[in-house]
Every structure is written in structure tokens, then in C-alpha cells.
Amino acid sequence: VLEALSEAESFIYRRLRHWKMLKRATGSMTANAVPAASPTDYIAQPSDFLEDQILFITGVYASQVIRKTEQDVIANYQYNADGYLVPTTPQFFYTDQTNIYFNCPPDQAYPYILMYYQQLTALATSVDNFLTSMYPRLMRCACMIGACEFAKDSGQGQFDRTYWIGEAEKEIAMAQSES
Question: What is the pTM of this model?
């Protein structure tokens, strides 16, 4: 049962971006005062990070850091005569599985605010979250996808997994429209 619930949550969290999933992280970028062979041109993603919404440098140098593709960020790299990345104020970023990379090493310890969509606490360890209180049908549809797979694998009747995927997608679209 817990495995089916975990799969249902994963199905939902990979698709849904709702304002109740937003979380704020703050910190300071690592300063790279001079060009170096191995600069720190990234910040670590929070452990519950699903997707970024917006990244701002705050304070005196306040500005928005714009999300770009990895190729676009790399295309904006600026090198000095020694072949090192030139430290300056980050303007662009991209993400991978663990970090948020900038188009340059920060030249100062810029404070930042990262708004991002979080992976909610698993219902296996938490009794309630906004999905169970606001979107119970979405949870039921996602659980039924797993139930159909189980029933098919155990040879217990005819169950239409495609129907439940369609119903879950409709419920996600409705939740998105309300967010």
C-alpha cells in the first residue's frame, strides 16, 4: 500500500506545480574574488527541490537571475587571457540534478532568494498535505493507476489504466488552473 501511495505521489509531483508547493530559500553565493582554475560558480539545490520558480540577487546589487538552458549559459561564459572564467555578477543560470549553475563565478558573496517548487513530505510519513484536503480525487485517480497495474499483474479482471491516467491528468489541469 505504501509503495502504491508513493508511486501516486510521484506521478502527481512530477506534473503539478501549485502555489502551495512553493518554498523560499535564502543564502549567499560563494565569492570568487579573482579568476581561478576551479571557481565556485554554483549553489546547491535544496534537498526537496523539484523545479525553480525564480532566483533573485538581493541587497545592493538586486537583480533577477534568469533561467536559461545549459547551452545558453555556457555560451555566455567570459574568459580572461589565462583561460579562466571571469568573476562578475551572475545574470543567468541552469540546473542539473544537484546544483544551480551560473554563467560566471560570483565576484562577491551575493545574497539571494530562491523560490522553488518543493517535493512535499511523503504521505507515508505525514497524514495530510494540501493534496488530501483540496484535491482528494486527484490522489484517488493517481492511486487507481497503480491499482490497475497491480490488478493486471495479478490477473484479477479488466482494469483500464489509460482511463485513470486521463482522469488524473484532468485533475492536475484543474488544480493548475486554481493555482
Answer: 0.82
Given a cut of 80, is residue 58 above it in pLDDT? Answer: yes
What's the Rg (C-alpha) of the chain? 21
Angle formed by the axes of helices 2-13 and 161-178, to 10°?
50
Q: How far apart are CA 14 and CA 119, in angstroms?
A: 9
